[in-house]
UniProtKB/TrEMBL annotation:
<dbReference type="GO" id="GO:0016779">
    <property type="term" value="F:nucleotidyltransferase activity"/>
</dbReference>
<dbReference type="InterPro" id="IPR041723">
    <property type="entry name" value="CCT"/>
</dbReference>
<comment type="similarity">
    <text>Belongs to the cytidylyltransferase family.</text>
</comment>
<keyword id="KW-1208">Phospholipid metabolism</keyword>
<keyword id="KW-0175">Coiled coil</keyword>
<dbReference type="InterPro" id="IPR045049">
    <property type="entry name" value="Pcy1-like"/>
</dbReference>
<feature type="domain" description="Cytidyltransferase-like">
    <location>
        <begin position="80"/>
        <end position="208"/>
    </location>
</feature>
<feature type="region of interest" description="Disordered">
    <location>
        <begin position="1"/>
        <end position="26"/>
    </location>
</feature>
<comment type="function">
    <text>Catalyzes the key rate-limiting step in the CDP-choline pathway for phosphatidylcholine biosynthesis.</text>
</comment>
<dbReference type="Pfam" id="PF01467">
    <property type="entry name" value="CTP_transf_like"/>
</dbReference>
<dbReference type="InterPro" id="IPR004821">
    <property type="entry name" value="Cyt_trans-like"/>
</dbReference>
<protein>
    <recommendedName>
        <fullName>choline-phosphate cytidylyltransferase</fullName>
        <ecNumber>2.7.7.15</ecNumber>
    </recommendedName>
</protein>
<feature type="coiled-coil region">
    <location>
        <begin position="239"/>
        <end position="266"/>
    </location>
</feature>
<keyword id="KW-0594">Phospholipid biosynthesis</keyword>
<dbReference type="InterPro" id="IPR014729">
    <property type="entry name" value="Rossmann-like_a/b/a_fold"/>
</dbReference>
<keyword id="KW-0443">Lipid metabolism</keyword>
<keyword id="KW-0548">Nucleotidyltransferase</keyword>
């Protein structure tokens, strides 16, 4: 495996190039003991501070070509993806699935930013950091979760977690005074792009909730939440409760109408049955009458013999 040269670093300190010198004998003797990708899904992914990589073998960053060829079993490609992951949804999961399957033997580390960092650089979240950490631990593609992840990736952070590549969608992410917080990662050849899922995002979900706020407020009042918990004013609470009562009355009227229609339909069906039976009985009665009293009936024959 190629070894990083000591002078192969960018201005940010991130290694950029590889030499073709073979590893020394002492390096070859040290086996990799990095955590392995999860094989079973019977437990949530661990946190990084619970299972830090203490591998003594030197971490020689890979090229994308090397990673795609496949690495030894004891040396998974360590791919890092980060984000806020508020209201964890299918778009998040699909991005992590892509990051996990970029290479044949990948170990996916996912960094989740804290509430303090997120509120400072992006805005308020629906879920708090503990909830967001826990949501990521239960995603099948995640091998390890890093809590309180940095907003901008430093060489020290990348080295600490022995990260080979950083996965994110390729759209420049402007934040914290930078036009693209992943620019230095891209320049170092460590960036691998994923594709965004159209039609789903945390902002979209929040927009739906805001748009239909009255509907959700009324629903939660019905379910037992208080106006204080929903931050609903006294007047709006009364309005919502009145609307709920009106809806209940409408539902009752609708049910009565439906039952009335069912009753009328049953009466009509019974009426048709009765009429059909009456017609059948009438034809039978007339037939019997003619057989007895008709011109050729039994009574006429009896009279002829007298």
């Amino acid at each position: 495996m190629p070894v990083l040269t000591t002078d192969a670093e960018s201005e940010t300190g991130i290694p950029k190039s590889f030499s073709n010198e073979p590893p020394s004998e002492t390096m070859e003797e040290i086996e990799h003991t990095c955590p392995q990708p999860r094989l079973t899904l019977t437990a949530p992914a661990p946190f990084a501070d619970e299972t830090s990589c203490h591998c003594q073998a030197p971490h020689e960053r890979l090229t994308i070509a090397q990673a795609r060829l496949g690495t030894p079993v004891d040396r998974p490609v360590r791919v890092y993806a980060d984000g806020i992951f508020d209201l964890f949804h299918s778009g998040h999961a699909r991005a992590l699935m892509q990051a996990k399957t970029l290479f044949p033997n990948s170990y996916l580390l996912v960094g989740v930013c804290s509430d303090d960092l997120t509120h400072k650089f992006k805005g308020f979240t629906v879920m708090n950091e503990a909830e967001r950490y826990e949501a990521l631990r239960h995603c099948r593609y995640v091998d390890e979760v890093i809590r309180d992840a940095p907003w901008t990736l430093t060489p020290e952070f990348l080295e600490k977690h022995k990260i080979d590549f950083v996965a994110h969608d390729d759209i420049p992410y402007s934040s914290a005074g930078s036009d693209d917080v992943y620019k230095h990662i891209k320049e170092a050849g460590m960036f691998v792009p994923t594709q965004r899922t159209e039609g789903i995002s945390t902002s979209d979900i929040i927009t739906r909730i805001v748009r239909d706020y009255d509907v959700y407020a009324r629903r939660n009042l019905q379910r037992g939440y208080t106006a204080k918990e929903l931050n609903v004013s006294f007047i709006n609470e009364k309005k919502y409760r009145f609307q709920n009562q009106v809806d209940k009355m409408k539902e009752k009227v609708k049910n009565v109408e439906e039952r009335s229609k069912e009753f009328v339909n049953r009466v009509e069906e019974k009426s048709h049955d009765l009429i059909q039976k009456w017609e059948e009985k009438s034809r039978e009665f007339i037939g019997n009458f003619l057989e007895l009293f008709g011109p050729d009936g039994a009574w006429a024959q009896f009279q002829a013999t007298q």
